[in-house]
Amino acid sequence: MQPANSRAPRVAALAATILARRDLTNNPYLVSLADGSMDRQTFITTQEQFFYAVTFFPRPMAALVGRIPLPHQRLDILHNLLEEHGDLNEAAFHHTTFREFLHRLDSDLSRLDTLALWPELRAFNSVLTNACVLDELEVGIGCMGIIEQAFATVSACIGSAVVARGWLSSERMVHYRLHAEIDQRHAEEFFAVIEPAWDDPRRRYLLEQGLELGAYIFDRLYRDLHLHSS
Fold first, then answer.
1. How many domains does the chain have?
2. Per the domain annotation, does 4 fall within a domain?
3. 10-residue block means of pLDDT along the chain (230 residues)?
4. What is the reported pLDDT for 180?
5. What value, to the nearest 5°, has the Cα angle with vertex 2 and ends 147 and 196?
6. pLDDT at site 181
7. Is residue 1 in a domain?
8. Range of the domain at 34
9. What is the CATH number of the domain that holds 65?
10. DSSP assignment of 52-108, as one string?
11. Is residue 21 classed exposed, middle or buried when 0-12, 13-18 and 19+ CB atoms within 10 A define those classes?
């Protein structure tokens, strides 16, 4: 649900409708994690792969910042990019906090630098690159924004399931707890950039394409992680 004082009420409402149709909380990855059918090692293995999505995500975001023509429109996404980098504190980089999450799950972090990337992750990252670098600006911004919005929900689901399974205590839950709190705001910041495009039918079509694409590839990523590990 978008905030009452949303800066992008029409885009945010459409994004919420698209995500409701996708029904991410019933994605088989999240369902198997919550119902106990996914074992701890499978979860760790898939999250080690997801690390490559986490550490890659700021790169297409940075490309978008450079493509936004008006300086004042860059600021919120630039701040988002800085938050991805811990507001310039390396210990708070999302790259760093996700590694810490894996460490607390007893993942062997020495493997991460040499781990073979699954094609499912390369496909996801490649779509983000294409959307943000080569496609129309509204497509890239819509795609990234709806992923941020979806990740707020997914983070809450994963965090709750990990605690419920007894794999980490709520006090030791890092990364996902933060994203459950901040990614709705991050989504709003993306959506605000493209809200004015709503009034131009051609540009509205492009932002709709971006929202649909982001919801699709994010849902597909978790489905593919589940299929690969089954």
1. 1
2. no
3. 72 97 96 97 97 94 90 81 70 82 93 92 97 97 96 92 94 74 81 94 97 98 96
4. 57
5. 80
6. 66
7. no
8. 9-229
9. 1.20.910.10
10. HHHHHTHHHHHHHHHH-SSHHHHHHHHHHHHHHBGGG-GGGBHHHHHHHHHHHTT--
11. exposed
